[in-house]
Amino acid sequence: MKPHSLINYNRNHGFSMVETAKQLTYFLADKRLYLAVVFCLLSVGCTQNKEFPEPGTTKAIPHRIAPVITKCGSVLDEASLINKGWNILFEDNFGKGGILLPPGAPNPTLDETKWTYWTSGAYNNELQYYQPANLTLGNSDVAGNLDLMITAKEEHIEDGAISPYAGPTEVGDFEYTSGRIESIQTFRGSDYNKVRIYARIKLPTAYGLWPAFWTLGVDGPNEQWPQNGEIDIMESKVDVLGNVPTEYQTNYFYGTSPGNNLVSGAEFEVGVADLTSCYHIFMVEWREEELKYYFDELLIDTKTYDPDPLSSGHYIPELWDKEQRIVLSLAYGGDFLGNNFVPGAIAAGTGTMYVDWVKVFVK
Ligand SMILES: [Ca+2]
């Protein structure tokens, strides 16, 4: 998801200061230089990272078409997990009894003892403004069960904060809204032998959406992204042709200085079944020396430690000690959608990401 890697810039600011073509040329030249320097400092670290999908570039992602998966509506066998020695560390089944948010909302929604939410824009040149009103509870594929529904839609927001860390004057206008939550519960792999992070999700179908289930490291006094690490368990999109997602990516990030990602070639694209008409279980098993990614309990990707730091997709064991929180987000637009992305309409009923539950097991 690369939360801090790219800056939002000039979404709502024009070039009215430029009065002649010559001035415009100079201005744009300066701007490109400025952006290059800022991008270098904030995102690329000027040295190691060639992996960020910065605008204007394309990159090869390891790609594998998994066996055709026709399973639909997967259910987790928790009893079996517990019999095998796994203990549950965190869960939210998004059931009834949640706290009303915002007050007066028609549905009980987020349990604020478990989650925080964003009320702002984000990063990566994403177009949405996150707000709690886009987080609701609704019926799932199981009678009597409820899902957390994160809904992206077209909605005008005037002078919204451009990020959770924006100053009072750092505001902009937005034409899309959506939702993002982060778990209050955090965990380090190094406190356990193994950690499994699960969610049961049905993805939205609207073009331009960027649903993601991931972990983000907790900032420390001298530690920022990607020093604190990140594990992307699932991120997907509807392509420029509007095709229903049949692919998603796994990834992770780690670095030793702010903005300087050392992970190389760990983005892995998984070809699977339709992700939008069925609920699927996405999971990563985090071990000291590897990340093992599962789709409906089928192992589809392993990122393993390799002493060769340049080996593609290698795992960096320092991540093991980095405190993580869980994030569920539904962005609209942004760098992940690629250079050909053009913002458009989100048809009614197509902009919702359905999350039945999230669980963390440890042993
Ligand atoms: Ca549920």
From TrEMBL:
What InterPro entries does the record tag this protein with? Beta-glucanase-like, ConA-like_dom_sf, Glycosyl_Hydrlase_16
> A GO term (biological process) for this protein?
glucan catabolic process
Domain annotation GH16: ranges: 100-363
Gene3D superfamilies the UniProt entry points to: 2.60.120.200
One of its Pfam families is Glyco_hydro_16
Name the family. Belongs to the glycosyl hydrolase 16 family.
PANTHER family in the cross-refs: GLYCOSIDASE C21B10.07-RELATED, GLYCOSYL HYDROLASE-RELATED
Protein name listed in UniProt: Glycoside hydrolase family 16 protein
